Amino acid sequence: MSHHLLITNKMVKVCEPELEAIYQVERLYNQNDPLKFLAGNGDKYRAIAGADVSAEMMALMPNLEMISSFGVGYDSVDTAAAKARNIRVTNTPDVLNDAMAEITVGLMIALSRRLVEAHNFVAKGGWENAGFPLQSELRGKTVGIIGLGRIGKEIAARAQAMKMRVVYFGRTHQHDQPYVYYDDLKHMARDVDWLVAMTPGGAGTDKLVDAEILDALGENGYFVNMARGSVVDQAALVAALENKKLAGAVLDVFADEPHVPDALKNMDNVVLSPHQGSATTQTRAAMGALVMANLAAFFADEPLLTQVV
Ligand code: 8YV
């Protein structure tokens, strides 16, 4: 008899057929009333695949031992509740570093060269009547990365390929890294042209980029959020953009996805992206494979591959 497995989140779709071949799968995201479903069936499951696991859900799953989370960030899993019950949590690090870094630099170029606007300019016939305004390039600019982790380092490498100067802010000075370190985010924001957020979400970084930091970045500065919507004070960001206190922004993540404030939708100095940092076929397949490998290790009583809790 195969094991029961609860899938909590649609992201896992990429490996659902493979999971179904091995486990007796139930999709919580198809339930009208997920908590009611768990109240009746929660005791069946020792393992979950997917994100978005609250303490309330865990409480309805007395036999839960493992959450194989899809994504490198696991802020949508209540890790305190998991820890308290010795429920192990795994994530999908590394396999998405390149996809994340590629799109980050791609979106930065899209903003600095106004690629979305340029496309519309050509498509709507504007070019027939006039030239497109001159734009700016990344070369020679300073980028400050908030969170020089595995993804941050890949962004740094690509920024250097663009001939940018790289500096970073984070909890620790990484002496083996060739970039200038700031232990004060406001100081870094003051000194950079581009501020890129690539730090985990959750309580520790909630509204880390607030009105004061945006003010320090200033009217010639660009803000890029590839991390989590929670990392920036979204209302302060909208206000800074509306009041021309910021040169522009690239936003892949938002406070209340998939809802995006209307104010951001019609600004030609803002590039919007639907939380798609890791969204390539290759990378999502690799993330799915890691979700599966962690589950396989768990059920085989072997060490988990990428345990975070
Ligand atoms: C996923 C991500 O879209 O890995 C992450 O942390 O943000 C993305 O790759 C997300 O985790 C889906 O749940």
Task: Tag the structure with descriptive keywords.
309 residues, alpha/beta, Rossmann fold, 2 domains, binds 2-keto-D-gluconic acid
Secondary-structure map:
Layout: E1 4-7, H1 16-22, E2 24-27, H2 34-41, E3 47-49, H3 55-59, E4 66-68, H4 79-84, E5 88-90, H5 97-112, H6 115-123, E6 142-146, H7 150-161, E7 165-169, E8 180-182, H8 185-191, E9 194-197, H9 211-217, E10 222-225, H10 234-242, E11 248-251, H11 262-265, E12 270-272, H12 281-299
Parallel strand pairs: 1-2, 1-3, 3-4, 4-5, 6-7, 6-9, 7-8, 9-10, 10-11, 11-12
Helix pairs in contact: 5-7, 8-9
Bound molecules: 2-keto-D-gluconic acid.
Provide the structure class: alpha/beta
Average residue pLDDT? 98
User: From the structure provided, what is the oligomeric state, counting identical versus distinct chains?
Assistant: single chain
Number of domains as seen in the coordinates? 2
- What is the level 1 CATH name of the largest domain? Alpha Beta
Shape: elongated
CATH-wise, what's the superfamily of the largest domain?
NAD(P)-binding Rossmann-like Domain
CATH architecture descriptor name of the largest domain: 3-Layer(aba) Sandwich
Tally of individual helices: 12
Order of helices and strands: EHEHEHEHEHHEHEEHEHEHEHEH
Q: Mind describing the biggest β-sheet?
A: 7 strands, parallel
Provide the gyration radius in Å. 21 Å
**Share of β-strand residues:** 5-15%
- Bound ligand species: 2-keto-D-gluconic acid
Give the number of DSSP strands: 12
Low-confidence stretches: none
Helical percent range?
25-40%
> What separation lies between the terminal Cα atoms?
29 Å
CATH fold name of the largest domain, please? Rossmann fold
